[in-house]
Amino acid sequence: xxxxxxxxxxxxxxxxxxxxxxxxxxxxxxxxxxxxxxxxxxxxxxxxxxxxxxxxxxxxxxxxxxxxxxxxxxxxxxxxxxxxxxxxxxxxxxxxxxxxxxxxxxxxxxxxxxxxxxxxxxxxxxxxxxxxxxxxxxxxxxxxxxxxxxxxxxxxxxxxxxxxxxxxxxxxxxxxxxxxxxxxxxxxxxxxxxxxxxxxxxxxxxxxxxxxxxxxxxxxxxxxxxxxxxxxxxxxxxxxxxxxxxxxxxxxxxxxxxxxxxxxx
Length: 265
Prior knowledge:
This protein is mostly helical and 265 residues long. The chain has one domain. The chain has helices spanning 6-20, 23-49, 59-76, 82-90, 93-98, 103-129, 140-166, 168-171, 175-188, 200-208, 216-223, 231-257. The longest helix has 27 residues, at 23-49. The protein is globular, with a radius of gyration of 20 Å. Residues 261-265 have low confidence and may be disordered.
């Protein structure tokens, strides 16, 4: 069967339009981000005032880190694979599997469409954030490396969500495990606290986990803590996680198709 890209572009467009109809939620997301940014700024200012923050990272750098991390979250917190759990419980997954489309790619397209809208929110969010904080802007070369790393982190994040939600084929429910992994990911992924703040051997462990490939790697590139000489190694690690999770997701999906449990209508 010949693969066609056009249907998946249409899926993304429809998801974008669907997400855009919830204007109040859009404004709420921006307001929530600004509130979190203000609170995080106050926390870091207080910590640095008491000299309890780690040395080597000045206050303006950590505020920049926090701002960029929150802007990234507008995109990375979108989970287009959550509908797997809902459709398995409803039984509509059986109908989906009969459609002449690649279902995992449909989930990616749907999530990507939602992501595009939230990506557009980054511009007004950043402009409003500049009234609260001042951030550092690196060179165009560093921004390009950051963008590439961010794109790889986006794919890793999608694959991890896909794997979590595919568990619904066996358990019919994934909320609890998603909540746990979300908490672990926020802490060990570098979204809240830079992983370079972790001490010694613990830092090496958390930097080696897949969660770091989502937030920490692009953020450390942006901040300059990963120098240009180490870009190749950092991006290669993200590619390795992408390939590893991609292979695992393929096997899990094949196993899920052999174990379709239809519940309800």
